[in-house]
Specification:
Chain lengths: 243, 259
């Protein structure tokens, strides 16, 4: 797998195929059982702890659960990486934080606490926090889940714009096919821990392989079963009555 | 055979946990502090020290007065009421002060530390901090360890003072024992190093152990609601048992020659 620099790469696949795990391996939080992950030529599983933390300053990650710090306000959450990693004076930090919050439409929510935000709003705050240090690599874990259509549109434009203006390398992990196809330059489809398809969104949509067709067009029947492995439903339901 | 195998696995698991805990503890305590860390330390000192004051003061007062009551009734039979102050001070400074404060601290602050860190872990706050290049050992764990180390000996001192005051209220103000005898008896027998110093050493050791257990249990918790509940219970149980066991060991080691 190759993630091109300065492009948006989408990683799609059914739930439970290890998309989030992949992001954690890239970020060095998990060690791969086999294989290597190079970020900018550095093997993240082999560097020292200090080097890893240094490397992570250039990586932004949006967590599926937002993972905002519940003891800090929205403003302080976004200011957190700036305060930790820069020696900027307070008024510069304020300006930067407000700009980032404005980009996600939440400048007015700066004094709220994470517990007062809706799921979609906290996702946007988390995004503002992830881009606070203008990272070189941005990883989004399911950025579109739980967003209303308006916020969804704004988020897509935001991701696209960040990529265009800052030349950020983006990895978007998602199973929202339409949204991801719309913004990604390149797509990977993974299932069962393997890459089953790669290419531009247009090319993948035309792909002939059963697996990819099923996924790209959202059909319940195909090589990937919709059901978690189970006995036949008739015997499962009737079995107890018979016995 | 199978039992042996399982016992072995359990032992190995325990040992590896102990190893992890020691590494974490070392890295957190000796990690270099950074600008702004003092503020974090002060905040923790407030939440685990200052907020424990109420329970410490209340328990100290009642324990002090109840000891004085028992001592007085027994000693009065020999006409030795004056010895109440002396006995009270020795019992508190050497044993009850550090031990009871340690137990209360484990219940009040240790459980809070575990629950807080456990919840941070289960909501991925620790992960996201790591991904931002901020070491949670430095940002979250270290301030709590240091704050516990400072808070517990101070709380113990406060406990001792309040308990002696409580004893004085009972023995002198209420039961009418002679205040001169009460205080001078205490002054005669209490040694700075032998009683105060060794008691303080005990409370420092307890602080190390309790915060270590609390922080590691939080950090190592299974990120579910039950997991946090279990970890919190384990913190209180383990640290209470450790406090009592260590107290015996420390008393034996420091005062020695009992036979």
């Amino acid at each position: 797998m190759e993630i091109p620099r300065g492009k948006i790469t989408g990683i799609m696949g059914p739930s439970g195929t290890g998309k989030t795990t992949l992001l954690r391996i890239i970020g060095g939080q998990l060690k791969p059982d086999s294989g290597r992950v190079l970020v900018g030529g550095v093997d993240v599983a082999r560097v020292s702890r200090d080097e890893l933390f240094e490397l992570r300053k250039h990586i932004g990650m949006l967590f599926q659960s937002s993972a905002l710090f519940t003891d800090l306000s929205v403003f302080e959450n976004v200011a957190f990486p700036l305060r930790e990693h820069t020696a900027l004076p307070e008024d510069s930090i304020r300006d930067l934080v407000l700009m980032k919050l404005d980009a996600v439409g939440l400048r007015g929510a700066r004094d709220l606490f994470p517990s007062e935000l809706s799921g979609g709003m906290s996702r946007r705050v988390a995004l503002a926090r992830a881009i606070a240090l203008d990272p070189d690599l941005l990883m989004y874990d399911e950025p579109f889940t739980g967003q209303d259509p308006i916020a969804m549109g704004v988020l897509m434009t935001l991701i696209k714009n960040l990529n265009l203006t800052l030349k950020t390398t983006n990895i978007v992990v998602s199973h929202d096919i339409h949204e991801t196809s719309a913004i990604a330059d390149k797509l990977y489809v993974i299932a069962d821990g393997r890459v089953i398809g790669a290419g531009t969104p247009a090319a993948l949509r035309e792909d002939e392989s059963e697996l990819i067709r099923q996924f790209m067009h959202g059909r319940p029947d195909g090589p990937v079963p919709f059901h978690f492995p189970a006995d036949d439903i008739a015997s499962d339901l009737l079995g107890r009555a018979v016995a | 055979m199978e039992i042996l195998q399982r016992l072995g696995t359990r032992m190995l698991e325990r040992l590896s946990k102990l190893g992890q805990a020691s590494i974490m503890w070392g890295m957190a305590l000796w990690g270099l502090p950074r600008r702004g860390d003092f503020g974090l330390f002060v905040r923790q000192l407030y939440s685990i020290g200052v907020l424990s004051l109420v329970i410490i003061v209340l328990s100290a007062f009642s324990i002090g007065s109840v000891i004085a009551l028992q001592f007085y009734t027994q000693l009065a039979r020999f006409g030795a009421e004056d010895a109440v102050g002396m006995g009270l001070a020795l019992v508190l400074l050497r044993e009850l002060g550090p031990v009871v404060t340690g137990l209360l601290f484990a219940g009040r602050a240790g459980s809070a530390i575990t629950a807080e860190i456990g919840l941070m872990k289960s909501t991925e706050q620790l992960s996201s901090m790591e991904m931002m290049g901020v070491d949670p050992l430095r940002r979250i764990v270290a301030p709590r360890l240091w704050a516990g180390l400072v808070a517990l000996p101070l709380l113990t001192a406060i406990f001792n003072v309040v308990a002696i005051y409580g004893g004085m209220v009972v023995a002198v103000e209420w039961l009418g024992s002679d205040p001169g005898g009460f205080w001078s008896g205490m002054q005669d027998v209490v040694e700075v190093w032998d009683d105060l110093g060794k008691g303080t050493i005990k409370s420092v050791v307890f602080a190390l152990v309790i915060t270590w257990i609390a922080v590691f249990q939080g950090y190592d918790t299974e990120p579910t609601a039950e997991g946090i509940g279990r970890a919190t219970t384990r913190t209180v149980v383990m640290s209470s048992v450790m406090v009592l066991a260590l107290d015996f060991a420390l008393t034996l080691g420091m005062y020695g020659d009992f036979k």
